[in-house]
Amino acid sequence: MDMPLDRLRAYLPARREPADFAGFWERTLSEAREHELGAVFTEVETGLAEVRCSDVTYAGFGGHPVRGWLLTPARAAGPLPCVVQYIGYNGGRGFPHDWLLWPSAGWAVFVMDSRGQGSGNRHGDTPDPAAAGGPSAPGRLTQGVSSPEDYYYRRLYTDGVRAVEAARSHPLVDASKVVVSGGSQGGGIAMAVGALVPDLLHAFVDVPFMTHIRHATEITDAEPYAELARFFTAQRHRVEEVFATLDYFDGVNFAARGTTPALFSVALRDGVTPPSTVFAAYNHYAGPKDIRIWPYNGHEGGGSAQVVEQLAVAAGLR
Fold it and tell me: How far apart are CA 105 and CA 227, in angstroms?
């Protein structure tokens, strides 16, 4: 543990919020919405007798096509509550059969592919046409980090907001009952979208990445935060400039604006998203909130046990 649990529960670090944080995101989403959402749902055969699946394309940041899956129970007539699922670092949307949990529980699930990712445990299908040049370390964490406008996570978080809009556009989805969910990078996206979309039903935020970022680089050598450390070994003179960009994407600043009811999880032996970074966001979270603490787990967090907790919450949201 990087801090004892009693200190974690009280940990409320000062936030570094840019003066134009709200304006930056309002402008970013306004520009994205100048492009037609154009969500296209093409039903595909998967061999799954109890689940219907559509291959989805919609316009994300810059109008760029973003891929996804929409899965629903085969016999459902709708409208259905829907989980919008975001994916961990370097993962992609994979195959439809990777996402059977929520249809099995009677929900729709909309799985957003992560642009430019998909070299991890699941393949991806969405390129990143706006990948910025300039100095960077291998990976996504420093891509375009010279400015907030060019930074990779500006595009990814915007794609996440547009994924909610695409899910709501489908006739089987109850637009008033949308939950955002994810772990690690996906948890960071879910927390950001929970702050940027004011009328969501709930958020499931598991071991979130991209929170209390500067502190994370000071206490862990684990990937992906290690990408920043490697970048700074050569770009010694750019430390403050880079963190000024990252302040626009830090989950602690989104947490302070979060109004969506949220269930968090944290693992106290997690070296990837250290517990103090998770509690920094949780303790700043402005909306209704609860957290599940897994004392002896690492970045896997609560795993299937956390899913039990989420299903119990979801049962009360139907």
Answer: 38
Output the average pLDDT for the chain. 96
Name residues whose C-beta falls within 8 Å of residue 20's C-beta, 6 or more positions apart in sequence: none
Strand order through the sheet with 289-294:
40-44, 51-59, 65-73, 108-112, 80-85, 173-183, 202-206, 262-267, 289-294
What tens digit of pLDDT does each residue of 261-318 get? 999 999 999 999 999 999 999 999 999 999 999 999 999 999 999 999 999 999 999 8
pLDDT at 120: 82
Query: Does residue 89 have a known ligand-binding role?
Result: yes
Instruction: Report CA-CA distances (Å) from 140 to 41, 155, 185, 193, 227.
Output: 28, 11, 11, 19, 8
Residue tagged active-site, from 114, 250, 270, 276: 270
What does DSSP assign to residue 97?
Answer: G
Q: Which of 170, 212, 284, 299 is catalytic?
A: 299
CA quadruple 32, 40, 173, 50: dihedral sign? negative
Between CA 60 and CA 308 the distance in angstroms is 32
Which residue, among 40, 14, 18, has the nearest Cα to 27 in the 3D structure? 18
Which phi and psi angles does 279 have, rounded to 5°? -65, -30
State yes or no: is 212 an active-site residue.
Answer: no
CA dist., res. 271 & res. 226, Å (int): 11
Task: Write down the pTM of the prediction.
Answer: 0.97
Of 184, 206, 215, 284, which residue is the catalytic one?
Answer: 184
Q: What is the pLDDT of residue 133?
A: 62
Strand partners, 205: 182, 264
pLDDT at 318: 86
Can you name the residues that pair with 84 across neighbouring β-strands? Answer: 110, 180
Domains and CATH numbers, the chain: 5-10+26-315 (3.40.50.1820)
Query: What is the residue type of 248?
Result: Y
Catalytic residue status for 146? no
Please indicate whether residue 184 is annotated as part of the active site.
yes
